[in-house]
Design brief:
CATH class of the largest domain: Alpha Beta
Number of helices: 17
CATH topology of the largest domain: TIM Barrel
Number of domains: 3
Radius of gyration: 29 Å
Low-confidence stretches: none
Strand content: 15-25%
Mean pLDDT: 89
CATH superfamily of the largest domain: Aldolase class I
Number of strands: 16
Largest sheet: 8 strands, parallel, barrel
Distance between the termini: 52 Å
Shape: elongated
CATH architecture of the largest domain: Alpha-Beta Barrel
Length: 522
């Protein structure tokens, strides 16, 4: 099976995502990770367009990558400039790389209405720009911008542009820049162009405006394409680019192609999350292959089947891409998920036992009240602990009070007082905070810290409130989900009440008790 080359443009096209802004350090770190992962080509940016991208290539002149080839991006020369004097092309040479990518117009509308030059002059720009880079010993990828749209409007001219680029010495990359071409159209056009031109080795660059970028990329590979451009997690302008996460997974696991990153595929999930973290974008739980929910099973019928054979509801094994299988506890899940979770806690539970039936009924009752254990697994594990053991509380609440005061100077002050008994000792403490829940958290920790020093390493990282029955208005129950974290892991807990402070307190207590329980020697 032939090798498929992966060309990553996360640092250029991906950085054009609304809400993403990479620092120079971010770009360098991602490039190093891409190199470690085994990506063939890394498009680092447009060195002529901004100082940060120039600095990026300057950095790697002194600190070369081990595996990947860095590629600077630019355009054909400006119509007013001869290629050898065009600052954009000169900057590509100045990047000091073996390869360079330039885009050029292959749609006659773009030539006439955007560049505002003749069709013949555009062909000259393409030839001269590639020729200049080739004379400087650069290997050139020519991104035929808007190729598929251009072919559908004026096929003769679109083909002329890529033939001109090929004669000048460039590798052709067909671009679905507007993201509107459908898979069967990609297939038809690619096959026609290959017959007309004799071009065998070519690439594809697809945008996702119709949700087809990944499918379009894969169908082109099946028809001879050996070079795929895309971004990790599908980042990119407007609706994004072809998602390399899915592309790499499918090319290897389903289509059997050779990839440079073969040996690192079991790190794909970790790498996808890393890119999300550096991009400051929440990782999609339902992201194919690498999302937290990609191999999560909730329905009782599904879980029962999965326990008998993993092929029942999974198209690949999650371990192959570094993900993991999860069984979600909910009112829909049945007793099977309870048995699995009990086993994770090293408890033996027979699915047919009275205890399993009791737990299943309890979960159904709690979820009918508004609890949601699929999003709060720590609270569920505490529920199991209380059922399986004579669970001894770490402290007892005797009462709390929360005061919110708007002062004359405009400040809003939240203060909580709490009375608890810890190991037979009564504690009455008070603390302020940035809001009532934070004040309550601070007061509780203040009372516990001398007894449980490990709480100093725990912090709250997320707080969500959901109104469960909006029609009741302010009298409605609320569900509070709290995510906490220490130096080793994160966990989520849940509380439900008509009173948001009580719901928050219940979730806070579960969070603290889970931390103390997991740190306690078994």
């Amino acid at each position: 099976m032939k090798k498929i080359f992966i060309y990553d443009t996360t640092l250029r096209d991906g950085s054009q995502t609304e809400g993403i802004s990479y620092s120079l350090k971010d770009k360098i770190n991602i490039a190093k990770k891409l190199d470690e992962f085994g990506i063939d080509f890394i498009e680092g940016g447009w060195p002529y367009s901004n100082p940060k991208d120039k600095d990026f290539f300057d950095y790697f002149k002194k600190h070369p990558l081990r595996r990947s080839k860095l590629v600077p991006f630019g355009s054909t020369a400006h119509p007013a400039n001869p290629a050898h004097r065009d600052k954009n092309l000169i900057a590509l040479v100045g990047a000091g790389t073996e390869y360079a990518t330039i885009f050029g117009k292959s749609w006659d509308l773009q030539v006439k209405d955007v560049l505002r030059i003749s069709l013949e002059d555009n062909l000259r720009l393409i030839a001269d720009s590639i020729g200049f880079l080739r004379k400087k010993n650069r290997k050139v990828f020519f991104d035929a911008e808007h190729f598929f749209t251009g072919y559908q409007r004026n096929c003769r001219y679109a083909v002329q542009t890529i033939e001109t680029a090929a004669r000048a010495g460039a590798t052709i990359v067909f671009c679905d820049t507007n993201g509107g071409t459908l898979p069967w159209e990609i297939k038809d056009i690619v096959n026609r162009v290959r017959r007309e031109t004799g071009i065998e080795n070519f690439g594809l660059h697809c945008h996702n405006d119709s949700g087809m970028a990944t499918a379009n990329s894969l169908i082109a590979v099946a028809d001879g394409c050996n070079h795929i451009q895309g971004t990790f997690n599908g980042y990119g302008e407007r609706c994004g680019n072809a998602d390399l996460v899915s592309i790499v997974s499918i090319l290897k696991l389903k289509m059997g192609y050779d990839l440079s990153c073969d040996k690192k595929l079991n790190q794909l999930t970790e790498f996808s999350h890393y890119v999300s973290e550096v991009s400051n974008v929440a990782h999609a739980d339902n992201h194919p292959f690498v999302g937290r929910s990609a191999f999560a099973h909730k329905g009782g019928v599904h879980i029962d089947a999965m326990l008998k054979n993993h092929l029942a509801y999974e198209h690949v094994s999650p371990e192959l891409i570094g993900n993991k299988r999860r069984y979600i506890v909910s009112e829909l899940a049945g007793k099977s998920s309870i048995v699995i979770k009990a086993k994770e806690l090293e408890y033996e539970l027979d699915k047919k036992s009275e205890r399993a039936k009791k737990l299943h009924k309890l979960i159904q009752e709690l979820e009918s009240q508004g609890y949601q254990f699929e999003a709060a697994e720590a609270s569920f594990k505490l529920l199991l602990e209380r059922e399986f053991r004579k669970y001894k509380k770490f402290f007892d609440l005797l009462g709390f009070r929360v005061i919110i005061e708007k002062r004359d100077d405009g400040r809003l002050i939240s203060e909580a007082t709490i009375k608890i008994r810890v190991k037979g000792v009564l504690h009455h403490t008070a603390a302020e905070g940035d809001g009532p829940v934070n004040a309550l958290d601070n007061a509780l920790r203040k009372a516990l810290r001398n007894f449980y020093p490990a709480l100093a390493k725990m912090k709250l990282v997320d707080f969500k409130v959901r109104v469960l029955d909006a029609q009741i208005g302010t009298a409605a129950k609320v569900r509070v989900l709290i995510e906490s974290q220490d130096e080793k892991e994160s966990w989520s807990t849940v509380g439900v009440s008509e009173n948001i402070i009580e719901a928050s307190y219940n979730a806070l207590v579960d969070s603290i008790e889970y931390k103390l329980l997991k740190d306690k020697p078994r």
